[in-house]
């Protein structure tokens, strides 16, 4: 083993050992129940995972041990904690250069041609169009400053320790990203978006490993007075959320071309990019469908790194006012400061995990998915309509690209992989139990038993649960002690019993946490609902369950991704049905009737468990039904925005 690897292993071992002792009543948030550390699609790549240990370390503790790589002698005494953050920030370098590429944009051939075309269309001089283009570039560009980055890095040590108890990353994942960064092929981080903290978490974390800092594509709603220049210094460049108020105005050739050229120039300089593929923070706690961009002409020249986050609790509010129908308030510096101030000092986020997927060439995705299409394989249909008005569709994207459907497939694939690698928080597990099983008051003893069964089931299905140690006798007691204070406002409790508080805001809070479980159980929930929808018929055939499940997936295709584009959805559903007949028979107790039609009768206990899973997706179908019923009741045709 190389000497550097031994050094890194020693510091990681010290960090892994810096955890509560067995006698301390705190869940082991460092533990992972998975044997793999870095995941990538086994269908598209020959190496689907790294088998390195995948336990986590707390990045907030790194200054106590010195910089990375570790000191020459791993047995030396640890450095003093006195001013450890300051000393670590000063001693940890930013070794890479970040040239300002904005000066080259207006001189590119493509931008010059478009400026001439726009001047001809609008009847203006080239000078006037150039001034407009200069304004666009100045409003957009990032300007990474090492002084600003170092200052922010030191401040974030203090802020993160006040907001969260742990910031957990897997060393094996970071080493994989570091190797990819050294390959000379630029990285594109594609994180799922949960919080405003996401913008800085990736940049701050890769700094510890000496990886290049990314340029971050941000909405111009964050380009606030006094805050915008700080974010620019940390790598953010700002993109308009809308181009004009009318759909026709969205086809702004000049802006699109400048944005495309700016991002391509960043990658040409071999600097990383960071782009939130969902485009906005999720209002519902579930993963959003991808808004495709950044994957077209540059698709074969970058390595993509899916990134996901697991928050025990979000730092900011959960869009309750928007979900209750109130108008969205425009973000401001004062509002951001107030939101951050409310979070500081209370450890609101609890433990936070970051998950970095295996860096892979996007061209490999394209090659595999093209072979799927060429071979005529039956794959998951991608019928979503592009939104031409959204900035999230502007990034290097060429209308009429013959590979546009493949590019959309890549977007879906990346999002699916990102959500698949994320851990499930205990808040999500308990919230799912509360909403999907305990419609009536329950007892804490029953909740503990259900918590153990549910966590073990998720681990059995290949998903990690933050804070859960599979097989440990006291896990459910420790995790309940940790999660109940977070959900305290949503529950009415006495010594031995509880019930969910009948309040819209609290139901929304629990639903937000519950929806994070969808990547793990969406297809299970669909199949369970298909079973239950035919229970009155007595015996149920596999064929009928599969066809009903396909119908449900089609209805919900704009809410969640049920499989990867390289997979066959019907085959996945058939396997899920088969799991009920084989591996999961002991859990569901489905009584199988061995007849020619391969039918089955659902027993009473099985029906209760199937009903629990089905309740996970029922709210989406209820919402779809209510909206459809409302639209059908309108006295005049639907005319778009403002009809409600």
UniProtKB/TrEMBL annotation:
GO biological processes: fatty acid metabolic process; glycerol-3-phosphate metabolic process; phospholipid biosynthetic process; triglyceride biosynthetic process
Entry GO terms, CC: mitochondrial membrane
Protein family membership: Belongs to the GPAT/DAPAT family.
Keywords: Acyltransferase, Membrane, Transferase
Species, as recorded: Syphacia muris
Stretches assigned to the Phospholipid/glycerol acyltransferase domain: 187-312
SUPFAM superfamilies named among the record's database cross-references: Glycerol-3-phosphate (1)-acyltransferase
Protein name in UniProt: PlsC domain-containing protein
Stored Pfam families: Acyltransferase (PF01553), GPAT_C (PF19277)
InterPro entries named among the record's database cross-references: GPAT/DHAPAT, GPAT/DHAPAT_C, GPAT/DHAPAT_LPLAT, Plipid/glycerol_acylTrfase
One MF annotation (Gene Ontology) recorded for this entry: glycerol-3-phosphate O-acyltransferase activity
SMART domains: PlsC (SM00563)
Compartments where found: Membrane
Top-level taxon of origin: Eukaryota
